[in-house]
Amino acid sequence: MNVEYKFYQDSYGGGNIPEKDWKRLSQKAESRLKEFTFGRLPDQWEGKEWVEQAKCAVCEMAELLFAEEKRAGKTSENTDGYSVSYDTNVSGRSKLYETAYAYLGNTGMMNLGVDGLC
Known about the structure:
The protein has 118 residues and is mainly α. The protein contains four helices and two strands; from the N terminus they run H-H-H-E-E-H. It has one domain. Strand 1 and strand 2 form a beta hairpin. Helix 2 packs across helix 3.
């Protein structure tokens, strides 16, 4: 399921990502979301009770990816004396996971475990 740029702008209210970068970043975000849900996220989302949550997760994750690309991990840079500081506190992957969990944590898709054995 590809999240359309129109959804990003109109429903999510996004505006940070230029349209030319949307497809690439939303596909990366969706791929990470599939990974974080252990393959439980089906290809077809329409009609699912969590479809809006999943689309919003993709939007927010895409914004995180865009910001990370622009920043390249830098928190500050000074070109006079050439000084660069990098963010080493929380990995980009952790931020993506936290975002996905905020939207889909209550759906059961992000639970680590085996379905149907208990």
